[in-house]
Design a protein that fits this description.
The chain is an alpha/beta fold. The protein is built from seven helices and ten strands. The protein binds 2-phosphoglycolic acid.
């Protein structure tokens, strides 16, 4: 495990961006897997800037996502919408492949099989993750077994409320379930990077690093990955060692 502590969110975002940039430069046909939400916003801004201003060539890359809400593909909360608003609609060059989970798929079992096939054809060079305040990664909530493969998860109340707040939704319109890569697909990436920012994540970051690996803190399992990089800012790290 490699740990990078940064001063603040902006520096954390830049460190994250550099990992993605290095990936593209060292292997232009790499497969980059993204997470969405508050954590990666700054990183994606740096990434868009590098493509548009510094000619970072993503034309041979494959891009895909960790998870997706069950709901409306074009809903303002969907991963599909987030990826377009923050990345695909902003870059001058498009990646060779863009893959999505279909939030509105009628046959959910079939959708899982379809996406699993995509994942097996496109091994990830890097997987970015954010950290839930309850320790979740993707939608692997506390208690999920460590041998899980892609599935539909029922979101915990804290996750539902975080989604509601992030997208300014009413409780009724906030999705309750998510398609998510399981631990198996997450751990299959060559490099897994977890980014953590802000005091509200401090307690869970402390658990992740200072308690034994256990599925009450799903992200603790990442410590078993041979190439796990943890980037957190000072605010998130303020309880460490105390
Ligand atoms: P956030 O969410 O990046 O919006 O803080 C992280 C997560 O819940 O996975």
């Amino acid at each position: 495990m490699k740990i990078i502590e940064t001063k603040n969110y902006k520096e954390m975002s830049y460190e994250l961006f550099k990992l993605y940039e290095e990936c593209v430069i060292s292997n232009p046909s790499c497969c980059l897997s993204f997470t969405t939400g508050g954590t990666p916003e700054g990183m994606v801004e740096f990434f868009v800037d590098a493509v548009n201003q510094k000619c970072l060539d993503i034309s041979k890359c494959t891009m895909l996502n960790l998870d997706e809400y069950v709901g409306n593909r074009n809903g303002k909360y969907s991963v599909y919408t987030w990826m377009h608003e923050h990345l695909y609609n902003k870059v001058k060059i498009q990646p060779k492949n863009k893959f999505y989970i279909d939030a509105g798929a009628l046959n959910q079992e079939k959708e899982i099989l379809r996406y699993k096939k995509i994942l097996s054809k496109h091994p990830r060079d890097i997987q970015m993750l954010g950290l839930g305040t309850n320790g979740h990664i993707g939608a692997n909530e506390p208690g999920s077994p460590f041998d899980s493969t892609m599935f539909i998860a029922n979101s915990f109340e804290s996750t539902i409320l975080a989604t509601k707040e992030l997208f300014g939704l009413s409780y009724e319109e906030t999705p309750r379930q998510m398609y998510t890569m399981g631990y198996t697909e997450i751990m299959a990436a060559k490099c897994v990077v977890l980014a953590v920012s802000g005091r509200k994540k401090a307690l869970v970051l402390k658990k992740l690093l200072e308690e034994p690996i256990n599925n009450n803190c799903p992200a603790s399992y990442l410590r078993n990955h041979a190439n796990f990089i943890l980037i957190y800012d000072k605010a998130a790290g303020y309880l460490l060692g105390k």
